[in-house]
Design brief:
Blueprint lengths: L5 H4 L5 H21 L13 H18 L6 H15 L19 H11 L2 H18 L8 H6 L10 H8 L5
Length: 174
């Protein structure tokens, strides 16, 4: 879990500044998507990791349509197979240990793994650094305190319907 590295990185002298810059960019991008008059279904899409990793059979056709790539049966099936292979844990392939550079993960475990592996101080630090506006703006849950996190430890941290509410603002026709 790459998020686990935040614990030691937040001790670096420039980490707070880097995190603040990244969060400022996210806020700026979010505001731009809400106010720009040129954004439409032909030139803009927001796609989160969770959307593709957990529901690739829905989102792959949308990406093909958005990028004007024809859905060629061989190409499309090959992409579906690759996504299935790299987002579902294959017990036959499991070597009994963690392979640092392996690209195959069970996406349903990975997207929430951080809630169980990171301590509350680290989670709170990142949340406060980016703020509620960024997290909720991109459809993620903001945890009020440790009890709130524990109460929702097995509940999804992202709103699966978020894409629909944002896309409707831009009249996406998917």
């Amino acid at each position: 879990n790459s998020r686990a590295h935040i614990t030691w990185k937040k001790k670096l002298p420039d980490f707070n500044d880097r995190l603040a810059e990244g969060c400022d960019r996210l806020i700026s991008n979010l505001n731009f998507t809400k106010t720009s008059k040129w954004i439409n279904n032909n030139n803009f899409i927001i796609l989160r990791y969770e959307d593709v990793a957990l529901d690739y059979e829905t989102f792959l056709p949308l990406l093909y349509k958005f990028t004007n790539i024809p859905i060629d049966d061989d190409n499309y099936q090959s992409m579906l197979n690759w996504l299935k292979e790299h987002t579902k844990k294959d017990t036959k392939r499991d070597r009994g240990g963690k392979w640092k550079f392996d690209t195959q993960r069970d996406a349903s475990e990975v997207v929430s793994k951080w809630k169980k592996e990171l301590d509350w101080d680290t989670i709170d630090f990142v949340q406060k650094s980016c703020g509620r506006e960024v997290l909720e703006g991109f459809g993620y849950r903001y945890y009020e305190n440790f009890t709130d996190l524990q109460r929702n430890i097995d509940v999804s941290s992202y709103n699966k319907d978020w894409k629909i509410s944002l896309i409707r603002e831009f009249n996406y026709d998917f």
